[in-house]
Each structure stands twice: as C-alpha cells, then as structure tokens.
Fold this protein.
Amino acid sequence: MGLLAHERYCDEIVRLTGELRAALQGADLGATVPTCPDWTLRELAEHVGRAHRWAGEIVRTRATEAVADEKVPDNSPAGDDPAALDAWLAEGAAGTADALREAGPDAEVWSWSWDHSAGFWSRRMAIETVVHLADAALTAKVPYTMTPELAADTIDEWLEIVTFVQTTGDREIAELPRDGRTLHLHATDVPDAEWLIELGADGVSWSRAHGKADVALRGSLTDVMLVFNRRLAPDSDRVEVLGDAGLLDFWLERTSFG
C-alpha cells in the first residue's frame, strides 16, 4: 500500500461523494455533526462541495497563489431542498475530477503544502472526502468502512502533514514531547498496515513498521484510521490501547490543527 494513481484518486473523489450523497438521503440535514459540532449535516456537505470546487478551480486555472473563496464558482443551493444539495454535490465532485484528469498529476499549481502539483490535490480531495464521509455516516447513523488502500493512505497523508507542519513552527506541534517516546498503530485485519511514530529530539518522524512502543493503538484499519483522525474515541470498545494512553490522547489533541 502507498500512493495511489492520480486517476484512482480522481475516481475516488466521485465515488466517495456518491457514498456521501447516499448517507444524506433521508437524514436530518439540520442535525449537529458530533465530530464537527460547529456544523450541521447540511453545513458539512456544503463544506465538502466547496472544498472540491476550490481545489478544482486551483487546478483548472493553474493558480500560482491561493484562490480567494469569492473567485470560486459556487452556485450552492438556496433553501432546504435535499435534491438540489445532492445534485450540487455530484456536480462539484465530477467537475473537480474532470479538471484533475485534464491537468494530469504533474501539472504545477499552488498548494499550501510541500507538494505543488495537481497530484497533491487529487489525493487531498479524495482523503478529505474519506474523512468527512465518516462524519456524515456517524451523524446519519449508517455503516462506514473504508477500503484498505484509502484508509492506510489517510494515515500516511496525515503523518506527512504533521511532519510538514512542524517545519512551519506550529504552536501545537511544538508542544509535543521530544523525549524519544513512540506510538505504534497496528491494524489487525490488514497485513503490514502498521506505523511507528517517534517523538525525537528533532521532532516527529515515522515509518511503516512494527515495533515496541510506549503506546499502541490496535483495531481494524478503518477504526485505527478513524481514531487517528479524531472520528472515533480511543476508549471505544472497537479499538484497543496498550501502554501510555495519555501519550496517545496528547498526540490527538496536539495534531488537530484547529
């Protein structure tokens, strides 16, 4: 498991948005999202649709700087018509996937990250949808299981973001200990889906590896990913935490980035 092909990420943006749309069918769009309590389910869906359109506009225009929100074609549906929201979500995902396919993975575009390519945005928008689909499924009380490739890639990408953000002097990351303590993530249902994270003197480093750690998080790959993205509580009976649970809690708190 590792990076997926650009075309696969483009396909997943559309497919995962379809799953999001299915989760919204018949749900109370005014319900508060437990994992994003500042949003209703409708606002969560609008966030996803706008994120897709924003990334799509960056790629479509080959932007060399951040695109202001007001310059992104929106046309978000007014009122409370679920059918209009559904169509708007589908249109945004398809349009963004089309822009990414047309650009190809190596097209140079602005991003806030270490990677200034269209390929960054295809991956980022697929994983953005992975995580917010979990929010929607939890709120709508429908089942959620992620494919192994995407669940593992979601963990990889988050660790890449953490190691990038620590180079920017982020205050939350600076508060992580640098005493050599380690965290181990271990998926029990997918071979070789393990991560070892070290809080070393030079900051956070990580690898895909098995190893003894100060705290270990064990469970299905989907559930390990959900805990790591703060979508499932680490004290859930769906996962097992061995060792210094406080270290895991501290990591989750300091890697939320707002």
Q: What stands out?
A: Strands lie at 32-33, 36-40, 181-187, 194-200, 203-207, 215-219, 239-243. Residues 149-254 form a domain with the Nonspecific Lipid-transfer Protein; Chain A fold (CATH 3.30.1050.10).
